[in-house]
Amino acid sequence: MKFAHKTSVVAVAMALALTACSFGPSGEPPAMPSPVHYGAQAQPSRTVAANGVAQQFDIGSTAVPQWWRLYRSDALDALVEEGLRNSPTLAATQRTLSAAQQELRAQVGSSTLPSIDGAAQVERARSPVVPGVGPTEVRYNFFAGQIQAHYTFDLFGATRYANAAAAARVNVQGYELEAARCALAANIVGAAINVAALDRQIALTERLVAVASETANEDQQRYTLGSLSHVQALNSKDDAESIAASLPPLRQQRATAIHALAVLMGRTPDDAPVVPDLDSLSLPDHVPVAVPSDLLRSRPDILAADAAVKAAAADVGAATAQLFPSLSLTASMGRGGFSWPTLLSGAGGLWAIGAGLSQPIFHGGALFAQRRASIDTYDAAVLHYKSTVLSAFQDVADSLAALDNDAQSLASSERAAQAARAAFDETASRARLGSLPSTAQHASEQRFLTAQLGAVRAGSQRMTDTVALFQAMGELPSAQQHVTSKE
C-alpha cells in the first residue's frame, strides 16, 4: 500500500510537470462588468444651481491628485499638508512598508544567489592512546580556513513563485499606504468643513437663543401687565429654553470635531489648528467621474485586492513546485594542517564539492493539502477582489446621487431662507413704524435664523459629499512605491 501511494505521488507530480499551466493561475484579476452608469439611474451631467454653483460631472476624467486644492483655500491646503507630513499613523504605515521592502530584498537575494561563507578554526587538543603502546597521550594543534559556497537550483520555480508572492504582498502594503493617505486627506478636509459649519451653526443658534429670550422676557412683562395669558408666557419660556438646550450639543460636536482634526494632523487636542471660515471654502464646480475601467486602476483598495490575487496565484505555483525534485550544489575550498608550516604548504590544501537531489515521496498528504489550501486561498482572493470592485462602484453611485440630491436640497433651503429673510425685513420695517409688536419681529427673525441653519447644514453636507466623491475616485498610484519580482 505504501509503495502504491508513493507511485501515485510521483505520477501526479509528473503529470503536473507536463502541464505548465497547472503550476498556478495567471494571477490576472477576474473580468468585471463595466456598467454604462454607476447608479440605478444615469447620473446627470450637472446638478441644479445652488449657492451659485452647478457642479459639472466630468465623465471619463481621471482621478485628481491633490484634489483638496480645488476648494481654493490656502488655509485648508496647509491643514492637509501638515497632516500628511506629521500624522504618526501614516508614518507608521510608511515604515511598515519600508520594512517589508527590505525583507523582500533579503529574501530575493538569499534565494536566487549563491551563499558564500568564510570559516576559520584553530584548535588545541589532547587524545588518549592505548596504555603500553607509545606515549600516554597525544597533544596536537589544528589550523584550518576555508570558503564554503551553497546554491539551490530553482528547477521548477518554487523560489520564483515564492518571491513573486512576497513582492505582490509588498505591493498590497504599498496600495494600503496610498489608501491610508487618501483617507487621511479626506478626513482632514471633512473635519475642517464640519468644524467651519458648526461654527456657523453655533453663531446662528446663539442669536436664536438671544431672540427667543427677548421674546420670553417681553411676554413675561405682558403677562405681568395682564395683556397676555399665563399659558402663552410659559410657552415662550419653553421655546427659549428648548432652543438654549440645543446649543451645548453643538458646542460638544464642535469640540469633538476639532480634537479629532488636531489628532489627524499629528497634534495634541490642546493644540488644535485654526479652521478656515465656511465662506472662504469654494465648492469645486468640476468633479471627475472616471469610467469603471479607469476606476479599477485608480482606487488603491482595488489595486491592493488585485495584488492580493497575484500573491495568492503565486502561492499556488510555489505549493505545486514543492512536489518536484530539488537540486542543490555545495563546494568548499581552503587549507588545513596540524602546524602552520603544514597549513601553508602544498599538503595543506582542502577542497570538497557535492550535489544533492531530493524528491518528495511521502509526507502524509501534507504537500497536496498545502496546494489545495493555496487554491482555496486564491479563490477567496478572487472573490474578495470582486467584492471590492462592487463596493467601489457603490461608493461612486452613492456619492453621485448624494451630490445631485444635496444640490436640490440646498436650492430649496436657499429659497426658504430668502423668503424668510424677505418676510423678516418686511416685519422689521412694520415693527419700526409701530404697526406690529416687537414679538412679531422676533418670531419672524427666528424663522429666518432657522431657515439659515437649514441652508448651512445643506451646504456643508454638499461639501462633505464632494469630498466623498473625490475619495471614491481614488488617486493615481505612485509607481515608485511598488515592486515587481523577476519571473
Automatic annotation (TrEMBL):
Instruction: State the InterPro entries in the record.
Output: MdtP/NodT-like, OMP_efflux
Which SUPFAM superfamilies does the record cross-reference, listed alphabetically? Outer membrane efflux proteins (OEP) (SSF56954)
Is-annotated flag, keyword Lipid biosynthesis? no
GO cellular component term, pick one: plasma membrane
Q: Does the keyword Membrane apply?
A: yes
Q: How would you describe this protein's topology in the membrane?
A: Lipid-anchor
Q: Where in the cell is it found?
A: Cell membrane
Keyword terms, alphabetized: Lipoprotein, Membrane, Palmitate, Signal, Transmembrane, Transmembrane beta strand
Which N-terminal residues, if any, form the signal peptide? Answer: 1-22
One GO MF annotation is: efflux transmembrane transporter activity
Source superkingdom: Bacteria
Q: Which family does it belong to?
A: Belongs to the outer membrane factor (OMF) (TC 1.B.17) family.
What's the protein called, per UniProt?
A: Efflux transporter outer membrane subunit
Q: Which organism is it from?
A: Paraburkholderia madseniana
Taxonomy, top ranks, is:
Bacteria, Pseudomonadati, Pseudomonadota, Betaproteobacteria, Burkholderiales
